[in-house]
């Protein structure tokens, strides 16, 4: 099989241009899941995957999840694209999850090029929204399958695909679907693999065994029925935005310490065993400073930075809906504003306990403002943290695959981001999950100029083929 894998690697090398064209085709579909007006594009992207998979001989089922209320409109949820390739009882079965929706992106946010047009730069970056998160990986799996077929190489495992279109917006309905399909579509799953996170740096591949969870909140503060002239009503009425800003300013301090009482009580103690996992990693604080082009790091040592990202909770303020944000000097008093923030959770925090603490604290802080406006705090969506043992055979297969492609041992990392469905897969399918990242630390997922390095994309596709092989060899 070694020769076959070498042949596959050569095929991937020789077909880079085609693989990049394919990425350009999917990046051009602006499948932004959190914008109602772009929902049809998310569905279009799901349909693109369906027909591409059918053309590869994959049995496809579109799981429809019903409707959602967004921006006051009832809109359809995008389908989960389920695929099945091979049902040979002599082979192991691998379930692969990815997402085909993306974060919003506008040229005016500060992109150097149009976000939904893939641009290949001279220094080897493939720039475009979704290139690394998560369209590159999703089509990478399909290109891997196609390459095997073109070369006449047997796929060494049975494949179950699960591609969703709502990961960036709370994975609505997916948990129930996996529960429903655990003994049907996903029956016989031996291992699960997710490619939807990033290397710790830019040179060394890694395998990831932990994720933070995320609770996303809206604080709605309402006052008058309509926006008001601040010359006529300033000083005369209680202003919603004034109360909201006061409350939001009490959530977290400038060093990142969360100010909500009781929130840290649930955080697991750092054990000596865990302490060791921070040793010997390639991570450098200077790399972050150079990638961010600014020294805004909150921690002095590498270990503290990684602990802050991986094993402590964080609270980030994201925005205020209804507030004036354009250039210029509008003098309005907004009638209603919605403050948005989220809390990344870690072992052993529980979603319901976090919600209780948050709502109690915000209610108290709002009362202290003595505002006559009204407040409503809601957890819009939540996802649990996840933590696995990196000693499982699935990780051994991943390590061997990394060695085959990159000729080095992988680093073992945790991730500060969230992939809410990971723990559901583990629990429902009763199979180990491996996070096998393709992208590198400075890809800028969710940010402007998101990219995947051509090196990571091409070698990532090789890695997928090597991993299938190593799973079969276990
Ligand atoms: C790590 C993954 N690629 C990702 O970006 N996940 C998102 C998921 C999410 C959580 N709440 C809202 N979206 C993330 O970590 O933000
Ligand atoms: Zn994302
Ligand atoms: Zn993602």
From TrEMBL:
<feature type="active site">
    <location>
        <position position="101"/>
    </location>
</feature>
<dbReference type="GO" id="GO:0006508">
    <property type="term" value="P:proteolysis"/>
</dbReference>
<feature type="binding site" description="in other chain">
    <location>
        <position position="344"/>
    </location>
    <ligand>
        <name>substrate</name>
    </ligand>
</feature>
<feature type="site" description="Important for catalytic activity">
    <location>
        <position position="229"/>
    </location>
</feature>
<keyword id="KW-0645">Protease</keyword>
<feature type="binding site" description="in other chain">
    <location>
        <position position="418"/>
    </location>
    <ligand>
        <name>substrate</name>
    </ligand>
</feature>
<dbReference type="GO" id="GO:0070573">
    <property type="term" value="F:metallodipeptidase activity"/>
</dbReference>
<dbReference type="Pfam" id="PF07687">
    <property type="entry name" value="M20_dimer"/>
</dbReference>
<dbReference type="GO" id="GO:0046872">
    <property type="term" value="F:metal ion binding"/>
</dbReference>
<dbReference type="InterPro" id="IPR051458">
    <property type="entry name" value="Cyt/Met_Dipeptidase"/>
</dbReference>
<dbReference type="InterPro" id="IPR017153">
    <property type="entry name" value="CNDP/DUG1"/>
</dbReference>
<keyword id="KW-0479">Metal-binding</keyword>
<comment type="similarity">
    <text>Belongs to the peptidase M20A family.</text>
</comment>
<feature type="binding site">
    <location>
        <position position="446"/>
    </location>
    <ligand>
        <name>Mn(2+) 1</name>
    </ligand>
</feature>
<dbReference type="InterPro" id="IPR011650">
    <property type="entry name" value="Peptidase_M20_dimer"/>
</dbReference>
<feature type="binding site" description="in other chain">
    <location>
        <position position="446"/>
    </location>
    <ligand>
        <name>substrate</name>
    </ligand>
</feature>
<feature type="binding site" description="in other chain">
    <location>
        <position position="196"/>
    </location>
    <ligand>
        <name>substrate</name>
    </ligand>
</feature>
<keyword id="KW-0464">Manganese</keyword>
<protein>
    <recommendedName>
        <fullName>Peptidase M20 dimerisation domain-containing protein</fullName>
    </recommendedName>
</protein>
<keyword id="KW-0482">Metalloprotease</keyword>
<feature type="active site" description="Proton acceptor">
    <location>
        <position position="167"/>
    </location>
</feature>
<feature type="domain" description="Peptidase M20 dimerisation">
    <location>
        <begin position="209"/>
        <end position="365"/>
    </location>
</feature>
<keyword id="KW-0378">Hydrolase</keyword>
<dbReference type="InterPro" id="IPR001261">
    <property type="entry name" value="ArgE/DapE_CS"/>
</dbReference>
<feature type="binding site">
    <location>
        <position position="168"/>
    </location>
    <ligand>
        <name>Mn(2+) 1</name>
    </ligand>
</feature>
<feature type="binding site">
    <location>
        <position position="331"/>
    </location>
    <ligand>
        <name>substrate</name>
    </ligand>
</feature>
<feature type="binding site">
    <location>
        <position position="196"/>
    </location>
    <ligand>
        <name>Mn(2+) 2</name>
    </ligand>
</feature>
<dbReference type="InterPro" id="IPR002933">
    <property type="entry name" value="Peptidase_M20"/>
</dbReference>
<dbReference type="Pfam" id="PF01546">
    <property type="entry name" value="Peptidase_M20"/>
</dbReference>
<feature type="binding site">
    <location>
        <position position="229"/>
    </location>
    <ligand>
        <name>substrate</name>
    </ligand>
</feature>
<feature type="binding site">
    <location>
        <position position="99"/>
    </location>
    <ligand>
        <name>Mn(2+) 2</name>
    </ligand>
</feature>
<feature type="binding site">
    <location>
        <position position="133"/>
    </location>
    <ligand>
        <name>Mn(2+) 2</name>
    </ligand>
</feature>
<feature type="binding site">
    <location>
        <position position="133"/>
    </location>
    <ligand>
        <name>Mn(2+) 1</name>
    </ligand>
</feature>
